[in-house]
Design a protein that fits this description.
This protein is mainly alpha-helical and 212 residues long. The protein has eight helices and no strands.
Length: 212
């Protein structure tokens, strides 16, 4: 479980860092071609970065799907629990279990539908071709316009992220059954600071004091 404890953070960090780097290089390329520097301008013009936007969109979609799974594990999804907290203990526990079960069932359904879609979209051909079992009537499936990647690879974010969310819902339910606690996220907490530093209250602004 130590590997799964930080799986989403690693994936999001890698994707975010990669997208930032691609955007940075793309912007340098776009404005660098305007400089009349011998050889450098010709070299920049010879490069093709038309795929940069498509790649960044794909990376952000993957970040969103795995970020949703992180939200379940860390308890950062928006929820209204005013009524739940006022219920008796038995009713409150039943409500929590029902909500977590609904979340697990829903994400399992979305994951299964997503897996079925990518299987029919070309994933089956890739797997059969990998083991030398592909037949002539099988289709390789469509590809993306710029990168020309198989679209089933791009759409795999749906079933992978959904199944991971389903696992997180079940994990939260198991922890709640053992400890009676749900993951809570302190929005005022800043990662990297000590508890004492996070406990320091900032001076109130005029708006906080009731001013305009």
């Amino acid at each position: 479980m130590k590997f799964l404890d930080h799986l989403e953070e690693w994936i999001i960090a890698i994707l975010m860092g990669g997208a930032t780097l691609v955007i940075f290089i793309s912007v340098l390329h776009r404005y660098g071609t305007g400089f009349s520097i011998p050889y450098v301008q010709d070299w920049l013009l010879s490069l093709r970065f038309s795929w940069a936007q498509e790649l960044c969109i794909i990376m952000f979609v993957w970040m969103a799907k795995f970020g949703a799974a992180y939200g379940v594990r860390a308890g950062v999804h928006v929820g209204v629990d005013v009524l739940v907290t006022r219920l008796p203990a038995e009713w409150r526990n039943a409500t929590v279990y029902t909500a977590l079960s609904c979340g697990a069932i829903f994400t399992a359904i979305i994951g299964t539908l997503g897996l079925t879609f990518v299987w029919e979209n070309g994933m089956h051909y890739a797997l059969y071709n990998l083991f030398g079992m592909a037949s002539a009537d099988m289709s390789e499936g469509p590809t993306t316009p710029d990168l020309e990647w198989p679209t089933w690879i791009v759409y795999s974010a749906v079933w992978m992220g959904s199944y991971l969310m389903c696992f997180r819902f079940l994990q939260v339910g198991f922890i709640f059954h053992r400890t009676g606690e749900l993951p809570q996220h302190d929005h005022a907490h800043v990662e990297g600071l000590s508890d004492e530093e996070n406990a320091v209250e900032l001076p109130a602004t005029p708006a906080m004091k009731g001013g305009v």
